[in-house]
Design goal:
The complex is a heterodimer of chains A (141) and B (296).
Chain A: H1 4-12, H2 41-46, H3 48-55, H4 60-68, H5 70-77, H6 81-88, H7 92-98, H8 102-111, H9 116-124, H10 128-132
Helix pairs in contact in A: 3-8, 4-5
Chain B: E1 3-10, H1 14-21, H2 31-47, E2 51-56, E3 71-74, E4 78-79, E5 94-95, H3 98-110, E6 116-118, H4 125-134, E7 144-150, H5 160-175, E8 182-188, H6 205-217, H7 219-223, H8 227-234, H9 242-249, E9 256-263, E10 270-276, H10 278-281, E11 291-294
Parallel strand pairs in B: 1-8, 2-7, 2-8, 3-6, 9-11
Antiparallel strand pairs in B: 1-10, 3-7, 4-5, 9-10
Helix pairs in contact in B: 1-4, 3-5, 5-9
Classes of the chains: A mainly alpha (141), B alpha/beta (296).
Chain lengths: 141, 296
């Protein structure tokens, strides 16, 4: 683990920490691709419980309980303080960086009645309108 | 003997299914997508394959990371559609083909592809979003589907070359099945897109066109690329086009491309491509010339 200062420098440069390259030759060179966080077994192990929390949004009863009392569900699912905070703040980019897989995050978005393009805009740090302006046919959604 | 009569490469963006369910065929923003699938649906209606072998990936719906197989073949007589967070799609359950799928599993494992098998798990948008464009399904589907799930979510992914070899082994499995079945191989995913991180929204039409050319003429070149190279060229989630190599590996080098559509309205380049084997064309002649529509 690099010292905190080094990590915050990297974050300020928006250069992601590519743990995945350590052992996987198929990912060699991916550190040159900014703004990309390969979901590998290290992320999967670290965020297993957090990913499962979002995965369970495919269950109607779990969704209803989230809508009724999300704090109670964070506690019941055993999320850490950091995880619950990321979810509570709807910090999409933060959750991806933490190790959440996008395809369970999109299930979370459905419960929040957000579309994927709205989540994309958040991850890019743009307004929804600014993101749509970059698309060829913004009405196709 | 079962035989492969053709192959289809198609995107599996969930909005394809949403647009279908909402009846957006005449919406100007969606018409280029619907129009692009019609020639493929027509070919399927004419050729009447008995089985579609579908290379797809599950998006942490039917499988979770507690057990996330690199390759898994579905054996069930019927596959339901899942609730992915916004309710189940209003389509009939998808018919499987247990006898053929079990033969495929036996053939593949004996051919040193030690894949997992699954039953009773639903097929998510990775399979069902293009399927509803390809086959009519009221009151029921016209044939059976054998799903082969590929891990393109959780690294380490199978290499591009491994996917290609899987396709080759699938061809051997199909051709060793004693019953006369006509089979179409479908590879799903892509084309360029990235939907996580600050690089979200990345596309690369130039790369997409090169990929579409290589998948037909020189798939070996695509098997030499690493995942990192796919991510650089086609976006992080665009790496899933390695599933097209499984489709291509199951086809011969005598295929003809009958149709190609490319449409990039929002975040993912959506495409559908149809290849036909010459033996299939022996019985009738459909699409005597290549029709290519490209829009961006």
């Amino acid at each position: 683990m690099p010292p905190v200062a080094a990590r915050s420098v990297r974050r300020s440069l928006r250069i992601p920490v590519h743990r995945a390259t350590v052992a996987n030759p198929q990912l060699r060179g991916i550190e040159d691709v900014d703004g990309t966080y390969p979901f590998d077994l290290r992320a999967s192990v670290k965020a297993f419980n957090f990913n499962r929390f979002f995965w369970r949004m495919i269950e109607p009863a779990w969704r209803e309980r989230f809508v009724r009392d999300e704090e109670a569900l964070y506690r019941e699912a055993g999320l850490s303080a950091e995880e619950a905070d990321l979810a509570r703040r709807r910090n999409w980019l933060g959750m991806v960086r933490y190790g959440v897989n996008f395809f369970v995050l999109e299930k979370f978005a459905r419960v929040l009645r957000m579309s994927n393009p709205e989540v994309y805009a958040k991850m890019r740090g743009e307004s929804f309108e600014a993101f749509l302006a970059t698309r060829n046919v913004p009405g196709a959604r | 003997m079962a035989r492969i009569i053709g192959g289809i490469g198609t995107s599996h963006v969930p909005t394809i299914g949403v647009a279908y369910d909402k009846g957006k065929a005449d919406d100007p923003a969606w018409a280029p997508l619907f129009d692009g699938y019609r020639p493929v649906a027509k070919w399927l209606a004419e050729r009447k394959p008995d089985v579609l072998v579908f290379f797809y990936n599950d998006h942490a719906t039917g499988f979770f990371f507690d057990v996330y197989p690199t390759f898994a073949i579905g054996l069930s007589p019927s596959f339901d559609l899942p609730d992915e967070g916004a309710g189940r799609r209003p389509l009939p359950a998808i018919r499987g083909h247990p006898e053929f799928a079990i033969h495929m599993a036996e053939s593949l494992v004996n051919d040193e592809f030690d894949l997992a098998t699954f039953q009773g798990r639903p097929l998510d948008h990775g399979c069902n979003s293009p399927l509803s464009m390809l086959w009519p399904h009221q009151p029921d589907w016209p044939g059976a589907l054998v799903p082969i799930e590929i891990n393109v979510l959780q690294y380490p992914l199978p290499t591009a070359r491994r996917c290609y070899k899987l396709g080759q082994a699938v061809r051997r499995a199909v051709e060793s099945y004693p019953e006369d079945l006509d089979v179409v191989i479908v590879g799903t995913g892509g084309l360029s897109h990235q939907i996580h991180g600050e690089r979200t929204g990345f596309n690369n039409t130039e790369w997409d066109m090169r990929f579409l050319d290589l998948i037909e003429r020189d798939p070996e070149a695509l098997t030499r690329m690493t995942h990192a190279e796919y991510v650089k060229q086609g976006g992080a989630e665009g790496v899933e086009v390695i599933m097209w190599l499984a489709m291509r590996g199951a086809l011969s080098n005598r295929i003809r491309k009958l149709h190609q559509n490319y449409y990039l309205p929002m975040t993912t380049a959506m495409t559908v491509v149809l290849f036909e084997e010459p033996d299939a064309a022996g019985r009738s002649a459909v699409g005597s010339e290549v029709v290519t529509h490209s829009r961006s």
